[in-house]
């Protein structure tokens, strides 16, 4: 805004001054706040998922090349306390400490067509069917996509590893 003296912006910057000149005249804390606000959306554009850690869908195979476990730690390791045996059911409930009613990690784990299900076999892993994931078995689960931070957490499995 320009006043009668031809000066604008609180009398400190002349009319028609460019944005960079106005920024030079702002107090340092305001400049830092504006810079932080301008850069804040950038981390949201980055993906938190590692690429290449889980392979694409493939036919059942026992070859080591096709059965790579993700590099990161699993989202949960625990006992299967519910495995729905209904035809077509695609979920299990995994609990870190089933005796705890609250406080320990619990996860409702969904399966999709890309979910890899393995069992430890000698020095490697082998593909297995979801039907082998029964109540009382110990599993490690790596999630893919968003995980609802409810209790229990809810997410889709990228990889399920049967430990026993």
Layout of strands and helices, then pairs:
Blueprint: E1 7-8, E2 13-14, H1 19-25, H2 28-39, H3 42-45, E3 76-83, E4 91-95, E5 106-110, E6 116-121, E7 124-127, E8 138-148, E9 153-162
Parallel strand pairs: 5-9, 6-9
Antiparallel strand pairs: 1-2, 3-4, 3-8, 4-5, 6-7, 8-9
Protein described:
- The strands form two sheets. This protein has a five-stranded mixed β-barrel with strand order 3-4-5-9-8. A two-stranded antiparallel sheet has the order 1-2.
- It is globular.
- 17% of the residues are buried.
- The longest helix is centred in the first third of the chain and has 12 residues, at 28-39.
- It has helices at residues 19-25, 28-39, 42-45; strands spanning 7-8, 13-14, 76-83, 91-95, 106-110, 116-121, 124-127, 138-148, 153-162.
- With 164 residues, it is of the alpha+beta class.
- It is built from three helices and nine strands; from the N terminus they run ββαααβββββββ.
């Amino acid at each position: 805004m320009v006043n009668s003296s031809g000066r604008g912006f609180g009398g400190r910057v002349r009319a028609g001054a460019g944005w960079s000149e106005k920024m030079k005249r702002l107090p340092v804390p305001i400049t830092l706040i504006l810079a932080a606000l301008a850069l804040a959306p950038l981390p949201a554009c980055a993906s938190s998922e590692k690429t290449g850690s889980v392979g694409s869908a493939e036919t059942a195979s026992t070859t080591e090349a096709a059965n790579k476990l993700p590099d990161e730690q699993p989202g949960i390791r625990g006992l299967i306390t519910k495995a729905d045996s209904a035809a077509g059911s695609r979920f299990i409930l995994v609990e870190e400490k089933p005796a705890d009613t609250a406080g320990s990690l619990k996860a409702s784990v969904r399966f999709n067509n890309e979910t890899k299900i393995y069992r430890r076999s000698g020095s490697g892993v082998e593909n297995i069917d979801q039907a082998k994931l029964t109540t009382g078995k110990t599993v490690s689960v790596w999630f893919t996509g968003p995980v609802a931070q409810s209790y229990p957490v809810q997410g889709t499995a990228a990889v399920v590893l049967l430990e026993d």
